Amino acid sequence: MSIEKFTPNWMTEEHQMVHDSALKMFKSWEPKDEQWRKNGMIDRAAWEEAGENGFLCASIPEQYGGGGGDFGHEAALLYAQAEANQSGFGGMVHSGIVAPYILSHGTEAQKQEWLPKMATGEYVAAIAMTEPGTGSDLQNIKTYAVKDGDDYIINGSKTFITNGQHANLILLACKTDREKGAQGVSLIVVETDKVEGFERGRNLDKIGLTSQDTSELFFSNVRVPQKNLLGTVEGMGFIQMMQELPRERLIIALTGVGAMKLAINLTLEYVKGREAFGKPIWKFQNTRFKMAECYADYLAASTMCDAAVDAMLEGKLTVPQASLIKYWVTQKQCDVIDECVQLFGGYGYMTEYPIARLYADARVQKIYGGTNEIMKELASRFM
């Protein structure tokens, strides 16, 4: 069996078709998954396949090479990826985060230049905010850019950057005025194939998301044209990030919902087939009660997220709402998957079982996109 949820308002027949088609593609990657996890990243060919199938930049207008859809198409893709347990694919950073930054804040020339290449997979995109010494404190980043003629010269470093090994285009948060705090932050696009002084560091060894490349990045006198400033005005980077972060936090929550669904379905299959003391584990009342509790958490989380998708589509999702949804759903994701691992017993601790990988992948959900402590702090400021 597969657990069901309430049909969301935003899920049209077209969205459902996108979900189902993407789910087939993501599941077709399963034979490659073990090697990808050993390699620490998926193959570049997977990005190209996603582009060929129209699963990159699905919500970007057709005039810029995108699919012409809306955030619901991104949500459908997120659910499909999570339900297929393909956590190594950084498509949502690329399509759901970086592309909307360019669409919302870039000049017409920037949109025409970069978005079509992202839609095909010719460019893989990353966003580089976090630094070794700053974490969630984006106002105090140290990476900086100074003007030199018609260029910027960039120096600094970033860490924990998703898609860092593959990225051809990096949306870089840096200081264009080091005397200011938030007002000195700008976003500059670095096309890595066109510059000198850019280096990729280690592909970081993580406890989860092992097939997703997550990197250190180094910038040593990297020269980029001033026209690569996102938009036309310096010092707008922090405002741009604050406007776009609710989308990122909803994306994280949607991923959590998809992971919960997969974990519950895997566990139901296991407990109905596994026997202990002469009968299936499902026959024990504790098992049924625990699974019912997990299902209830899934229903609550999915309903909350679907309401947030509706709000996003209407342009009404607020900072405190997105923050609290990200906090609550990712906490429930960890709680639910922990219960599922317990029901698997010792097998739940073996990485050959998908439930173990779901468990390891879930933990970072409470950290990136702003820690859950930061989420509660942000929301409390609006109360």
Concise account of the structure shown:
The chain is an alpha+beta fold and 383 residues long. Helices cover 49% and strands 15% of the residues.
Radius of gyration: 21 Å
Topology as H/E string? Answer: HHHHHHEEEEEEEHEEHHHH
Low-pLDDT residue intervals, each spanning 5 or more residues: none
Averaged pLDDT, please?
A: 95
For the largest beta-sheet, the strand count, sense and barrel status come to: 4 strands, antiparallel
| First-residue to last-residue Cα separation | 42 Å
Strand fraction: 5-15%
Helix content: 40-55%
Helix and strand composition category: alpha+beta
- Tally of contiguous helical segments: 11
Q: Strand order, biggest sheet?
A: 2-3-7-6
Rough shape? Answer: globular
Q: How would you describe what is shown here?
A:
This protein is of the alpha+beta class and 383 residues long. It is built from 11 helices and 9 strands. A 4-stranded antiparallel β-sheet has the order 2-3-7-6, with no helix packed on it. The chain has a 3-stranded mixed β-sheet with strand order 1-4-5, with helices on one face. The longest helix is centred in the middle third of the chain and has 37 residues, at 237-273. The chain is globular. The model has no long low-confidence stretch (mean pLDDT 95).
List keywords for this structure.
383 residues; alpha+beta; 11 helices
List the helices and strands and how they pair.
Layout lengths: L12 H16 L1 H10 L4 H9 L18 H13 L7 H15 L2 H13 L4 E4 L15 E5 L2 E12 L6 E7 L9 E7 L6 E6 L10 E12 L11 H37 L1 E2 L2 E2 L4 H29 L5 H26 L9 H9 L9 H9 L3
Parallel strand pairs: 1-4
Antiparallel strand pairs: 2-3, 3-7, 4-5, 6-7, 8-9
Helix pairs in contact: 1-4, 4-7, 5-6, 5-7, 7-8, 7-9, 7-10, 8-9, 9-10, 9-11
